[in-house]
Amino acid sequence: MVETSKGMLGRAKLILLDEPTAGVHYAIGRNLFKYISHLRRTRGLTFFIIEHRIELLFDYVDYVYVLHMGRVLSQGTPEEVASDPKVIEAYIGGA
C-alpha cells in the first residue's frame, strides 16, 4: 500500500498496482480490496490492477480483462468474464 500512498500524495488520479495481494492471506487481500474500493468512492481515484487471484477482486471491480498466453482472452464485467467458457476452459479445466 506504500505505492497507493505515494500516488495519493502526488495527487494522482490513476494508480497502477501489480499483484497487490501477492503473498498475503486471503482475508488480508479482501481487506485490501475493500480499502481500494473506499478510495475509489471517497477520493475519485481510478485503479488499474494486475492480479492473479481473481477470486479476491471480482466483488470490487467494474471491468476485467483476462490474459492468456499473452493475449486478451476475455473482457467484460466480472459476471461476464466468470461465465465465459473460454476463461473456464483456460483457468479451471480442460486439456
Characterization of this structure:
With 95 residues, the chain is of the alpha+beta class. It folds into 2 domains: 1-61, no CATH class; 62-95, no CATH class. Helix content is 44%, strand content 22%. The protein has 5 helices and 4 strands. It is globular. The termini are far apart. The model has no long low-confidence stretch (mean pLDDT 87).
Q: Order of strands in the sheet with the most strands?
A: 1-2
Radius of gyration: 14 Å
**What proportion of the residues is helical, as a percent range?**
40-55%
Q: Element order, helices and strands?
A: HEHEHEEHH
Total of DSSP H or I helical runs spanning 4+ residues? 5
Give the strand content: 15-25%
Number of strands: 4
The shape is globular
Biggest sheet record:
2 strands, parallel
Structural class designation: alpha+beta
**How many independent structural domains?**
2
- Low-confidence runs (pLDDT<50, min 5 residues)? none
What is the rounded distance between the termini?
Answer: 38 Å
Which quaternary structure do these chains form?
Answer: single chain
| Mean model confidence by pLDDT | 87
